[in-house]
Amino acid sequence: MQVTETLSEGLKRELKIVVPATELDSRLSARLEEMKGQVQLKGFRPGKVPVAHLRRIYGKSAMAEIVQNVLNETARKTLEERGERAAMQPSFDLPEDEAEAGDVLAGKKDLAYTMTYEVLPKFTLGDFRGIKVDRPVAEVTDEEVDTQVKQLANDSSEFQPKEGAAESGDRLTISYVGKIDGEPFEGGADENGLVQIGTGRFIPGFEDQLIGATVGEERVLNVTFPEEYGAKQLAGKAATFDVVVKEISAPVATTVDDEWAKKFGIESLEKLRETIREQMQGQLGQATRTKVKRQLLDALDERHTFELPPTMVEQEFQNVWNQVTQDLERAGRTFADEDTTEEAAKADYRKIAERRVRLGLVLSEIGEQANIQVTDEEVQRALVERIRQFPGQEKQVYDFYRENPEALASLRAPIFEEKVVDYLLELADVTDKTVTREELMKEDEDDAKA
Asked: How far apart are CA 4 and CA 13, in angstroms?
């Protein structure tokens, strides 16, 4: 095999590789000898098929398989010998001429092709020890737990049909048709809609206009969709709803005690409160983790500047951009609605893609130097959690990950990243800062918008 470098520009590499026809033919002969004892052809006893006959029948298909193996083996061996790590799977430019390709598959001509790839950049890690981090910490108060218990009691209330006019807290079964400028709009109708007055789950003003309604009554409700409403075609627009009240039910007072708690599979009200507190504290802890991680990543980003593999950046950008455009399409919005242009948005998201790739390489290098490992058991747990997200399709999901190494690697990557973050936190200069729940969660909202 002959390897000649034809391009070395930045992180880009191009190699001209020639594999002698004699080597290919040798591999083909060995493969045909293996097949000799496996194939069964009419007129021949098992294991007695002449190799020459096998070559005529299976030669080209076997050689195609050999060529693919040679490409993979040569790529791996060449990178090892050159001491390089490819940023992504190398690409191969094979002979396009049909006659030439046919000669290669027939074992009559050397296999000459071009291998193109980008190498991972070599860089020196900046000083990541002692990064200063302010860790916002919020504690769940008794009042917040009380509010959650009250909300849970309200959500689990039973309702009984009542006579008379609807009041705040009552649940109504209604049929309705929404209209804009007198014309019904898509998704604005329901024959058996449920609405509980006072929950604020419908368009502002919708529930309040049902107070005083009685069974069988028809009402026309006048509302205005919020400016930030998800469906662009409705946002900010005035609408009417033709409503018919079909049933009115009043909530049955809930006694919040140990017996009520047992409805949720918990032995007592005290244990239920503890469970709620733990869940709320877990949410706050996750928000704290997000804030701390963001500070660490910002600090790492500031400390590192190096050339990035263009293909990695482009792939990451496409992933981000596809998500952005899909979200806008689902919401019925445009870039103009976001006070930007497509060109400006692309520039911003490309910077985000570059940051992600850069930080990914930095975290990988830190983890490698610290010998941080992800165990098979950890990946298996992540796979189980993933499978649970697709009830009824467990086997298909399991088979997909088992048969796709790249998909399995996508489960390993976030585990590795979180382990590196934990390692960095052990070395960081962390100062706890007590904040309220509102302050902590507002920061999360601001980050999400950013």
From this structure: 11
- Per domain, the residue ranges of the chain are 2-118, 158-253, 266-449
Among the residue ranges 102-106, 115-119, 131-135, the one predicted with the least confidence is: 102-106
Q: Tell the residue number behind the tokens 């006694």, with chain if given.
A: 255
CB 359 within 8 A of CB 300: yes
Average pLDDT over residues 278-286: 95
User: CB–CB of 36/49 below 8 Å?
Assistant: yes
Alpha helices in 83-141 (DSSP H): 98-105
Q: How, if at all, do strands 429-434 and 132-137 pair?
A: parallel
Structure tokens, 8: 């070395």
The pLDDT tens digits of the residues spanning 149-182 come to: 998 998 888 899 999 999 999 999 999 999 999 9
Alpha carbon 256 to chain centroid, angstroms: 40
Q: Which two tokens stand for residue 223?
A: 């509302």
Q: Determine contact, residues 49/41, Cβ cutoff 8 Å.
A: yes
Mean per-residue pLDDT of the chain: 90
- Nearest CA to 331 out of 446, 202, 223, 235 is that of 235
Entry pTM: 0.75
Is 396 or 329 the better-scoring residue by pLDDT?
396
Give me the pLDDT at residue 449, please: 45
CATH of the domain spanning 2-118: 3.30.70.1050
Q: Give dist(CA 345, CA 328) in Å, integer.
A: 12
Sequence-separated contacts (24+) of 298-304 with Cβ below 8 Å: 299/128, 299/131, 299/132, 299/133, 300/126, 300/128, 300/131, 300/359, 300/362, 300/363, 301/355, 301/358, 301/359, 303/126, 303/127, 303/128, 304/123, 304/125, 304/126, 304/358, 304/362
Which fold, 158-253?
Answer: Chitinase A; domain 3 (3.10.50)
Q: What is the dihedral of CA 347, 349, 355, 360, to 10 degrees?
A: -140
CB 398, CB 387: distance < 8 Å = yes
Tell which CATH architecture fits domain 266-449. Answer: Orthogonal Bundle (1.10)
What confidence score (pLDDT) does residue 104 get? 79
Spatial contact of 109 and 100, defined as CB atoms under 8 Å apart: yes
Q: How many CB atoms lie within 10 A of CB 393?
A: 11
Q: What SS3 class is residue 124?
A: coil
Per the listing, tokens 């649940």 go with: 171
Rounded to 5 degrees, what are φ and ψ at 393? -125, 25
> Phi and psi of 418, rounded to 5°?
-65, -35
Q: Work out the percent of the chain whose per-residue pLDDT is above 70.
A: 96
In this prediction, residue 447 has a pLDDT band, given cuts at 50, 70 and 90, of low
